[in-house]
């Protein structure tokens, strides 16, 4: 097993965030959603935009959400099986590589996305999401193996910081092509946008070689390696579930994480839509807002790590951050001006990186540190987040459709945060890393 807190190894691990976060910014948040809306629209504000996919007719935005939700559900089903196989055979880096190449090559393939290639392009879009979220299961599982308890907060924050910096760099490069296509001999914004998708795939694949070269493969468990790959996966899943029954603090934290993740992930995905539909902000200002979120998220992740390490501990900092999230939902409900939206976005950005980074390291600290089942445990974490994301997105859209108001959806998000806060409060006297590891029996 590799020594913990090795600076080169940690830096290599963090570079995976640098590599894949470009997908999360360009494909999930900025250029791709804007391009998809334009390419599938009839340019008439008085009509509803429909698209045909696999013989069915969908509203264009509904198909977009369904495609993402399907990818999340596939990951939620597959990751416990694949992660348990990776733990028993010591090959989690192989799975990390497979998902990375699926996602990055799919992004490259999106260069062909035009209205005539909608069918295959939506499939590529789903494969890109599958590759991104699938690779994170195995990436996150390295954290307790490369960092000791006292450094896991800072190492987790370092990964997020690398991700934000890397994604911003590539985003700015892509913006140059999109805003000045003629300088580079491109036919227009459409081709420049498709070039951005290709660049994301190349960037992701290229920089992922750094962690692939330096991260260990994992340590196999010979007692489990003889199990059937399918039944062995479910057996590992069942074993982790049994272990969780004897880990009440971890179960309580996962419950809190489940509820506040419904709000966190949904806010991150609908922020641009909120600005466009409620405040009618132009695309250029919305993209600038997304970049603002990325810039302030870096110091936010570092600040939460520092406060946790020096003063309050993980759980108390998370309680404070969730309270701020509740305040942001309330503030969004009453937001009516452009400047209010920017102030809200800056606040969300500051706590966005912090809650993601600290949640990951807090979960890692609650795990039995000498266990060889880290990937299986982190698959639970990943599944929890994905199911929360599906429920959060569905609730947001359904409530808006049912009531006719996006602001009513914000009330639902605030309620998710409140429930998560209640479970965190129950953990306020418990600090992860001080809990004895349970028996494996």
Helix content: over 70%
What number of structural domains do the residues give? 1
Mean pLDDT level = 82
Query: In one word, what is the shape?
Result: globular
The separation of the N and C termini measures 24 Å
Task: Give the spatial strand order of the biggest sheet.
Answer: 1-2
CATH topology: Growth Hormone, Chain: A
N-to-C order of helices and strands: HHEEHHHHHHHHHHHHHH
Main β-sheet description: 2 strands, antiparallel
Category by helix and strand content: mainly alpha
Question: Architecture in CATH?
Answer: Up-down Bundle
Tally of separate helices: 16
Q: How many β-strands, per DSSP?
A: 2
Q: Can you describe what's shown?
A:
With 441 residues, this protein is mainly α. It has one domain (7-425): Growth Hormone, Chain: A, CATH 1.20.1250.20. It contains 16 helices and 2 strands. Strands 1-2 form a two-stranded antiparallel sheet. Strand 1 and strand 2 form a beta hairpin. It is globular. The model is unreliable at 436-441 (pLDDT under 50).
